[in-house]
Design goal:
10 strands; 11 helices; Alpha-Beta Plaits; 3-stranded antiparallel beta sheet; SH3 type barrels
Length: 382
């Protein structure tokens, strides 16, 4: 009976120069599958939502769970290889690298912790210190972002050093990165530097309504590489930061959020212009979103072919939120007031003058004088 069981543990199956048993294969398979399962659980949406409750941003939560999932999978795989009978010392250096598996796992966990500390520290710094500093929200956000990046870079350097990596070797890596930036990473470097310029100069800030290229909307987030703009259709557009530095940008909230709206209005030429002016001013003054200062104004713009053209000028803060809704409300109110007050809207008018086309008697019942076949066209009456 014992002999029948020994085959299960006997190492007689060669794989890459090492012999394994059936039990070893099963142990490795169980550890491998367990590593996959735990790694998948760590990268699930439920775990990411759980991490966001501790102040970790969504994109950082996804990065942290990915790193932890990789670390757990690597640990289970190492345990499976040892259980299969292939002894791999945890402290032995990885071929081609100067660090061991234990140092690599420590590095993975350390980087995950650094990202969590960076995100939570930035939120704590914003909520506990910058909110009470008296600075405007945009400047608070900028300072908080810079603080988070400093903590992140410093933490990664400390994690690399604690993992046993010689930081002096990073100079070679920096040289390789410099060559890569010169060829394939120009856009990334440009967006990165543009992000630093935006955070420093603040030509745009969170909550501003901007127009750049063909994109128009509210700035929702400013990151080191890109800026998120939310359009009026609730569509998030990711704009590279270099666009805000290299191209013309319209910022409706840069210094003064008040914007002047110009509403063209045309009325029939039979209308009382003074009454039209009073109606337009009354509509502008009674609209809740129109500013009392500067006061609304009505201009008699021009005389049209069949219209009197006016222009209602109204100041409002709605350009940063709902400009089309504000303009539409004014147009509806103007049309309703004109209908109630009897102000006619213009429509095309043409005067038709009938003249005889062939000359001769144009009295009623008279027959037109037709030209002779050989008469030149110049003799025809007009």
């Amino acid at each position: 009976m014992i002999a029948d069981i020994n085959w299960f543990f006997e190492q007689r199956y060669p794989v890459f120069g090492h012999y394994f048993s059936v039990a070893g294969f099963i142990a490795f398979g169980c550890c491998f599958l367990a590593g996959l399962a735990v790694s998948r659980i760590l990268q699930s949406d439920r775990v990411r939502r759980f991490l966001t409750r501790f102040g970790l941003e969504e994109h950082l939560a996804a990065f942290v769970t990915t790193i932890l999932g990789f670390g757990v999978f690597l640990a289970f795989t190492m345990a499976g290889l040892n259980a299969a009978g292939l002894p791999i010392p945890w402290e032995a250096p990885i071929p081609g690298l100067s660090i061991s598996f234990s140092h690599l796992l420590r590095l993975v966990v350390s980087i995950a912790v650094v990202f969590w500390v960076s995100s939570s520290g930035k939120k704590f710094f914003l909520d506990r210190f910058l909110v009470r500093s008296g600075m405007d929200k945009a400047l608070q956000y900028t300072v908080g972002q810079v603080f988070g990046y400093v903590v992140l870079v410093a933490g990664i350097l400390i994690a690399l050093q604690n993992a046993g990596m010689d930081l002096s070797t990073l100079t070679v890596f920096a040289g390789a990165v410099g060559v890569g930036l010169g060829f394939g990473l120009q856009n990334i470097a440009s967006n990165f530097i543009s992000g630093l310029v935006i955070l420093a100069e603040r030509p745009i800030k969170i909550g501003d309504r901007v127009e750049v290229d063909t994109v128009a909307g509210i700035v929702r987030a400013i990151r080191i590489r890109s800026t998120t703009v939310m359009t009026n259709d609730n569509i998030a557009i990711i704009v590279p930061n270099s666009r805000f530095i290299e191209q013309k940008v319209v910022n409706w909230n840069h210094e003064d959020p008040r914007v002047r709206f110009r509403i063209p209005v045309g009325v029939a030429q039979t209308s009382d212009v003074e009454k039209v002016k009073e109606i337009l001013l009354s509509i502008a003054r009674n609209h809740p979103m129109a500013l009392a200062e500067p006061a609304p104004t009505v201009f008699f713009a021009s005389f049209g072919d069949f219209t009197f053209n006016f222009e209602l000028v109204v100041w409002s803060l709605e350009m940063s939120t709902r400009p089309r809704v504000f303009t539409s409300d004014l147009n509806f109110a103007i049309q309703r007031a004109f209908r109630e007050e009897g102000i006619e809207l213009p429509f095309p008018q043409r005067d038709v003058h009938i003249r005889s086309g062939w000359g001769g008697d144009a009295s009623p019942g008279a027959k037109p004088v037709l030209p002779k076949p050989d008469e030149p066209a110049a003799s025809l009456g007009a």
